[in-house]
Amino acid sequence: MWLTDDEQRIWRDYLTMSARLQAAMNRQLQADCGLSLADYEVLVALEKQPGCAMNELGERLGWEQSRVSHQLRRMTDRALVARPGADDDRRVVTVQITAAGRKALAVAAPGHVALVRAVLFDEMSAAQAAAVGRWLAGAVRRLDQAH
């Protein structure tokens, strides 16, 4: 069964907004501090949960393990993260944000937050924000249940 015209319009607008927002965030981060959006996502995840296992980081980001591994290698080369072995099992690789990673995140966050706020939230009422929040939470829950 096909989407209705309204559903199709909403779906296409969502895809367009998502792609353009990702591109804008990448441009802003590169211009402000030389980070990619992927760098920023990893740093935010590690700031919230320092020393997490590499596979857990991949799950939190929704990335395939090969993408996580390649991204972490690039970030390790730039001293943004470190990957020491876990204390209790050397087969488990943990990931930690470094001092340079924390500094980069501190530089990046204000511009990133300003962009997201300007694009998504500045013209949204509290009622709209609540409705969008419920809609997104429901979609995430349904995706998690299907996975």
From TrEMBL:
| MF annotations from Gene Ontology | DNA binding; DNA-binding transcription factor activity
HTH marR-type domain: residues covered: 7-145
User: From what superkingdom does this record's organism come?
Assistant: Bacteria
GO annotations under biological process? response to stress
Q: What keywords tag this UniProt record?
A: DNA-binding
> Pfam families in the record, alphabetically?
MarR_2 (PF12802)
Q: Which InterPro entries match?
A: HTH_MarR-typ (IPR000835), MarR/SlyA-like (IPR039422), WH-like_DNA-bd_sf (IPR036388), WH_DNA-bd_sf (IPR036390)
Q: Does the keyword Secreted apply?
A: no
Q: What is this protein called?
A: DNA-binding MarR family transcriptional regulator
Organism annotation = Mycolicibacterium fluoranthenivorans
